[in-house]
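Hey, can you fold this one?
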Amino acid sequence: MKMTWLQVDENKTNFTLDGKPFFYLADTIWSAFTNVTEEEWEYYLKRRKEQGFNVLQINTMPQWDRCMSDIGIYPFATEDGQVFDFTKWNQEYYEHAKQMCQKAIDMGFQLALVVLWLNYVPGTWGSKIMDKNVMPKTFVKEYVEKIVLEFDQFHPIYIVSGDTDFDTPEAISYYRTALNTVCEKSPCSLKSLHIKRGYDVIPEEFLDKIDFYMFQSGHNKDGQDMAYRLPEILSEKYPKKPILNSEPCYEQMGFSRKIYGRFLTEDVRKAAWSSILSGACAGVTYGAHGIWNWQKINKPVNPIMGEGFDTAQPWQEAIQYAGAWDYGWIRQILKTLHICKLIPAQDQLIDAAEEIRMARTKDEKYLIYLPHSTKIKINKSLAGYSVRAVDLQSKRIAQIELILKENITQIGMHPFEQDVLLILEKE
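Sure. Predicted structure:
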């Protein structure tokens, strides 16, 4: 397969590949290189391809809170699979990882590789929980050079940071070295930063070196409004670049900090559509509890549990969750409607709840995400338009009444019990 670099489009809002629009639809499989067998990988790729995904987000280092189902290959010498000797490379790990990358590329996936997850960096919230694997600062440049040397042949996106904050000069210093090294050694690749839940801080010195913004609405029960608030904040604070939600709530993930409850299919749909219609239209990332950490049956519990999420189902069950198919459907809807770019149109809604989100296209199509059935008023006359309500759970479609009163358009209630996408088009 001929490989080309993913690029940012001329409007700096979306991506292109080979000159064609590319909607970034990723799955988080952070633990792939350490946990997934060859046979499992082949099945995983086949199923995610069927579901419509085109990007895989993978950690190039062992995920700190992965499940203990490892295949026993690590990038560095280790006695327990938890603490690494950064003075002793293990090339077998990289050969194994490259074989996995090649299979993914052959299946048509783009790779988004995390360079330096936060627990390897001092001064971050993760390294305060687990400081046994903090990487020596003098080793960072050599390590990043190694990552580019091994993986650049696959034309990946480099996600330089993982789940991080930039709250200390020490953390910034580490990521400065890492980002500068990636820019030097891989000038053609797209670069970004994966930041922690609800966070909107990007050091000014990094802004001209990254190509797009990632944010994380995350796994806290409270704060799910970040799915639409953060793209609005990023659009206002920083130079114009593509934006995507790189870590919404994961399906069947337990609420963080040991709060009882799990995110359901409707929750992950809501996070996706809320982000996309609020300015993060370049793409979105799905996550399933049991996939990101690769849960297997009869394996010991990881002694490091991160934010204390509840137990995951085995990966064989997690890969079948309905939300994965729903995320694939997002991409299909946008493709069918010939939508590449969406412009937030929240200001045209009259007296609507904030969680109702609206966007438009340049050719005046409108999309409205409606979590619950209610009447909608739009501060514009949409004479000559029709309205379809797509039930995002059942995929049933209803034609909805549209009433014009002076310069106000009113849309009637839809008949469905779940969340819907309203599609407004000229007849």
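The first strand starts at residue 7 and ends at 8. Let me know if you want another pass with a different chain boundary.
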